[in-house]
Design brief:
299 residues; alpha/beta; five-stranded mixed β-sheet; 12 strands; 45% helix
Length: 299
Amino acid sequence: MITLRQLEFALAVAKYKHFKRAAEECNISQSALSLGIAELEKQLDTQIFERNNKQVLITPIGEEILERAKRIFSEVNDLTTRAQTHQTPLAYPMTIGIIPTIAPFLLPKVLPKLRESYPNVQLSIVEEQTERLIEKVRYGMIDTAIIALPYATDGLLTFEFWQENFLAIFTQKNAENQPKIMDTDTLVNRNLMLLGEGHCLTDHALSVCHLDKNKIKSSFSDASLNTLIQMALSGMGTTLIPEMAVAQIKQQNPDIAAIPLAEPGPHRKLAFITRLNYARVDDVSLLGNAFAEALDQSQ
């Protein structure tokens, strides 16, 4: 009998093309994962993976099997949550994905208020870049995710709950020599530092400022937004921060100055996303309303 656990093993191997990393994600030994895959292939009388010491390849029939496995996994997760719809709103555990450029500034503002309104709320938080979060939502690995729009979300439900602008940051000393409104040319001349590819904050900043990424002198693919903030404070240039982060960053760094952009806003919108057939859509909508209310109160 094929088990869901075996399908989970196969999907993890397909994701990483690496048995050791897949075993780590599934929290089992590599040998146990290999046995599970072997048993699955035996049950199906089909080879899903070709593997040797250097690489893991998916066979053509394996591709089809894995696509069906993704759908099965998603349906089972929705089946489990559908059985809980009779419970008190937001009382059943939920896993929420959040992009890293939002999480540290958003969660401290909204979670205390959320727990006041819904004392039984049980949330698990996952931080990933937008593309990975959308993948996890589609395949039922997480319940919902908070992303920044615009972003392609075809086939998913979106619940917008906030919109905001970007600001350029400098030390107070350097800010004295800056205009009160920062236009694109000035940003580039002040050594605008952005995160690398895959970070939607960078994509949105480039779009808002009508910039070609090839004209940006400094990008940092493995850095965090906090690292860029500290580099800006040391006088190495400037970076863009979301509006919701200003108060927290100023509290931690009193010497900081945040200058608005000349480009009209809002520069991005925040939204919850989830699957079209997700059983607890009402809970996701409630979260959006609760987050919006908490952000309003924090202004």
